[in-house]
Structure formats: structure tokens, C-alpha cells
Design a protein that fits this description.
This protein is of the alpha/beta class. Helix content is about 30%, strand content about 30%. Helix 1 packs parallel to helix 2. The radius of gyration is 14 Å and the shape is globular. The two termini are about 25 Å apart.
Length: about 150
């Protein structure tokens, strides 16, 4: 994996008495050829603005944006909207958004809402970085390698 140059931005939330089970931690690191966003916890109506803020801060025009969601245990429609807007913004600016490690519950939300085919989803972070190295975000559909 590429060497990290440093942590740009991190937010951890436990708003208004929220317990550790529902807290969200989002970090952003600038790598040599991409930006890596790591998401841990639940992305819902109360935490989606955290995700949006870190993505907005970390995104660089023309550079791949890799979002490691292997630690994201829950995703609602508000969080999905943040990811879709980030995908659209990245493509508009000449980059791409890569989602890596989508867990079963968030994956199901993407399947039910029929947006999975619009996103570049990879089972692992390594596979997302391999796609970047190969110069292509393909495939843009879910992969049966997830085993769900």
C-alpha cells in the first residue's frame, strides 16, 4: 500500500450522549497518489454531516478518493446521499471515488436503492488501490466476491 504523508483531518463523534456503538470516526490521509478516507461506526442522519465534512476537506480535484468503509456498520439514506454526491463531485472534477470493504448491512442499502451499479465498489482496500494503479475504476458494479 502507498505510504501516508500524514493525517489531514479527523472527527470523532459521541454527540448528545450517543454511545460508542453509534459513534462515528472519520479520518482523512493524503497519500502519494490519492486521498484515503476511513469510516468507522454508523453513518446516519445524525452523523452524515461528519462524513461529508471530511470528504469535502480531503477531496482533491483530479485525484482518486478512496473511502475505506470496512468499519462502517450502518448506512442510512442520508449517508448514502453523501457518498453519491462525493462520487458525482469526484467525477465532475476529473477523479473517481472508490469504496472499499462495504459490509453486509450498508451493502444491502445500496442494493435496495439500486445505486450499487453507479459506484466503484471493491471488497478490499488493496483491490481499490490496484484499480487505481491500473488506471481504471472498473468494475462499477457490485461484485459477487463479497459473498453476501
Amino acid at each position: 500500500m502507498q505510504a501516508m504523508r500524514g493525517l489531514d483531518h479527523a472527527l470523532a463523534g459521541s454527540e448528545g450522549g450517543r454511545d460508542a456503538m453509534t459513534a462515528l470516526t472519520v479520518t482523512s490521509s493524503q497519500l502519494s497518489s490519492s486521498t484515503l478516507i476511513r469510516v468507522k461506526g454508523e453513518v446516519d442522519t445524525t452523523t452524515s454531516e461528519q462524513l461529508k465534512a471530511v470528504i469535502t476537506h480531503g477531496r482533491r480535484a483530479g485525484r482518486p478518493l478512496v473511502v475505506d468503509v470496512s468499519g462502517m456498520s450502518f448506512l442510512d439514506c442520508k449517508g448514502l446521499s453523501v457518498l453519491l454526491h462525493a462520487h458525482t463531485d469526484a467525477e465532475r472534477d476529473g477523479g473517481s471515488l472508490y469504496l472499499a470493504g462495504v459490509q453486509s448491512r450498508p451493502l444491502r442499502v445500496m442494493q435496495i436503492t439500486a445505486v450499487l451499479s453507479r459506484l466503484n465498489v471493491y471488497p478490499t482496500l488493496d483491490e481499490a488501490f490496484t484499480a487505481i494503479s491500473n488506471g481504471s475504476p472498473q468494475p462499477r458494479t457490485h461484485r459477487h466476491a463479497f459473498g453476501y
